[in-house]
Design a protein that fits this description.
homodimer, alpha/beta, seven-stranded mixed β-sheet, two-stranded antiparallel sheet, 11 strands, globular
Chain lengths: 276, 276
């Protein structure tokens, strides 16, 4: 048997109970509405199930896609429980009319997490970086979490909470040069793993980060299946996604429009560095 | 002057007011928290502003990333207004603990839209496809919207509302073969534009679709800048995002786990076809 044959045989063995369960359920009427029933995660073979506790930390004016991208992937970890965590259960305004609803608070969030994730933003992230309750929560859960992760300028927030000292890390390209002020080792890559820290570059890098994390939490075939469900085979219609590929005037405009954020973040990074 | 010089000069001219405004505002203290102020969209040059009315239609158990991916891009259309629209203002459970909050109802949503967008899902989408109020809303706004768009199995919902008859369209790979039953012309591409219809493939294709739409709503440099803000230069760590690239057992498992959804969607597609 080749390795591929062996893997196929193993997968087909895994598939057997799902096939049986599906055949048994095939005659059931399709549900009429309301609660989703019979979602495919119910049929995932037991060997692909887990019981991770995952906390996605949100705050006012967070960039929603930073965390909703990863949520797609992490939410499909059959058996895991996911919490959206904030300072209270009040609705959290993210951006442009999108409201996120916490399901746990800093107090009620499980103490021992498998995955702690946060995202970034601009002015909202600076505010979060000044919030003692947020920093205390991140420092506490981050001290025990199996994986401490961020997307975008969320890594500056992890840095401010003291969680990146001595770790290789990345961030949104705007924030990446500031990582060293938080004692981190700046890496110009899209997704950076260093021991149990995993940081992603800007916004859309959360999809790559989450898929990479899935590979570490489940068999690779499971991660491949979720990638297939997401049809994650991107074909951006433009090629301007990094400072290196964007036309110079576009990069200049982007820097100009975000200058007050970078200024604010730089001040906080320097203040942090002064205390190191 | 070369074309590139000309474009650079034009962009620098656009940049001038933003630079001036930024210099004037540079001494303002950074806001302490609460409401986001001074977000970069305020500083976008007037020539890059618009006044589009955009409706993102949500429903119980929608796949959140289908619409939150596009929302990142569309939300940055300076001057545009974005509505999350549902049957009422009640909280909408999407998936795995994520709650979305409508900002408008089928009744209060603007009548004449620039962009109508919906996303997909599995059992939730089938329920939406059976909801007369949803179908009436889509048919009404879709009859006048400048752009009628969907991500993932959202195209089946557009199809059920009669909006894809005679149009080239795509869908999640699971739903793509059903498009013809709704009178559409199935196209095996990630993003398909046909006149004012724009449909995307599964879930993550919403990012590509939205960026392509941005190009049609604003100068290309604006779309490039938003791509740069999103750092959208994806590097998936696995290569299993399509039925063609996924390992055969992974594809088999994916089909098995979603068989009841495909069965339900096929029945609806056949019923639709029978009425054509």
């Amino acid at each position: 048997m080749t390795d591929i044959d062996r893997r196929t045989a193993a997968m087909m063995a895994l598939l057997a109970p799902a096939l049986a369960a599906s055949a048994a359920g095939a005659q059931q009427p399709t549900p009429k509405g309301g609660k989703a029933t019979g979602t495919y995660m119910d049929k995932v073979p037991p060997a692909w199930k887990g019981n991770e506790k995952i906390a996605i930390v949100i705050y006012d004016h967070i960039t929603a896609l930073d965390v909703i991208g990863p949520h797609y992937f992490l939410g499909r970890l059959a058996g895991a429980e996911i919490h959206f965590v904030a300072d209270s259960l009040r609705p959290i305004p993210s951006e442009h009319g999108l409201i996120l609803t916490p399901t746990a608070t800093f107090e009620t969030c499980p103490k021992d997490l498998d995955v702690l994730l946060t995202g970034g933003g601009t002015s909202g992230t600076l505010t979060a970086m000044r919030d003692p309750a947020m920093l205390a929560f991140l420092a506490d859960r981050g001290s025990r979490a199996k994986w401490v992760t961020s997307v975008c300028t969320g890594s500056l927030l992890l840095g401010q909470a003291g969680l990146l000292k001595g770790y290789r890390a990345t961030s949104h390209w705007l924030g990446r040069p500031l990582l060293k002020d938080f004692g981190a080792i700046e890496v110009d890559e899209r997704v950076v793993f260093d021991r149990n820290r995993a940081t992603g570059a800007g916004v859309s890098a959360g999809l790559d980060l989450a898929l990479a994390l899935l590979q570490r939490l489940r068999p690779v075939e499971f991660a491949q299946m979720i990638q297939l469900f997401a049809e994650y085979a991107p074909v951006p219609p433009l090629h301007s996604g990094t400072p290196e590929t964007a036309p110079a005037p576009v990069l200049a405009m982007a820097r100009e429009l975000t200058s007050s954020f970078v200024e604010g973040a730089s001040q906080m990074a320097q203040a942090y560095r002064a205390k190191l």
